[in-house]
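During the second year of the project, the team shifted from modelling isolated chains to modelling whole assemblies. The rationale, set out in the original proposal, was that interfaces cannot be judged from single-chain predictions alone. As a representative example for this report, we include one of the complexes processed in the last quarter. Its constituent sequences, exactly as entered into the pipeline, are reproduced here:
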Amino acid sequence: MALKNKSIYAILGILSLSPSSGYDIKKYSDKVLSGFWNENFGHIYPTLKMMLKDGLIEIVSTEKNQKKIKYGITEKGRQELEAWLLEETIPQPMRSEFLLKLLFSSSQPKERVINMLKNYRKLHEKNLDKYLEMQKNLEQDNQDISKERACFMKAILRRGIISGEAVIRWCDETIEELQR
Amino acid sequence: MALKNKSIYAILGILSLSPSSGYDIKKYSDKVLSGFWNENFGHIYPTLKMMLKDGLIEIVSTEKNQKKIKYGITEKGRQELEAWLLEETIPQPMRSEFLLKLLFSSSQPKERVINMLKNYRKLHEKNLDKYLEMQKNLEQDNQDISKERACFMKAILRRGIISGEAVIRWCDETIEELQR
DNA sequence: GACAACTATATCAGAGTGATATATTATATG
DNA sequence: CATATAATATATCACTCTGATATAGTTGTC
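Output from the structure prediction step:
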């Protein structure tokens, strides 16, 4: 298959919920997908153009006198999204700069490494708090999201929470090990 | 700072252990860094050329009649590596295609989603086994690696193991939730 | 009405990925 | 001993993805 633009699927997924502009897509990514999916304007806009050319999406409205262009998903787009959902997901390569740094830090002063780990821990704690907050919000009001979708979002949040807790535990364990 | 080539640091780190060719660097990445760091030939070779031009590395030997070019780290390279180790690590953007797919799978048949999760679980189980195997190997023989370095490698492996176990637990929990 | 904050699109250089091409050197197998 | 095949080694390409920057209209507020 060779190198596939994955933003297409994120965009199709978002448009399948409701027609959106490039800016809306970015906002949704930052708000809802944040933590497990990243999108840039520099990729969204060219991808939208390409998808429009390929008939995966269509222009729904060019609102009044505004610059805003709203895109909607087409039938072909829905088929593409559905096909992707059925595909097996191949794991993507990882790049953790933190772990790379840690690996090459064995000659650094212990205090320095412990500090690194404490900062890393703090970061994950902050993330964890964010996820717990999002979980609370999700349980309160189910205004626009369907019960089904809310259940899936909760599962994904749980994933973030469980992983976050594991990383924090590892930090504590490793700091303790270094202090001995 | 704007967009920084991070492969430089991986390469400097590897060369700080022993002079290597591009091919050696790739092998080391696949064997030792695998699981938290990815490198490609398509990035290693141009980066090596750039680093040579910048004086971060030097050609140590062009072995006999072979094609192999061995690079070593220079004093300037060591300084660059050291400076990076002292820098704060900014978290890098994530892209989990699996979680993206899961989020948009709420209208898929339950059986289908459970299958997705089972495959994902299997993948992480395999990874976990690999880490446990690596941990065993690390405890047995400490031939070339220093005691200090071995300790850091163990910590990184522990990280992979703890995270892997957490993901597997999440899979089980989520599958159970879906079956209810 | 000035100033900040937000909405909106576009473009660019450079980082990173995976595929492919090419050639040499070990190693095995019949 | 020939020859297949696996491993070693470098190079290049198209494409994806990132983060920065440019530009301009709209909304809010003090």
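The beta strands of chain A are 57-62, 69-73. The CA atoms of residues 57 and 73 of chain A lie 4 Å apart.
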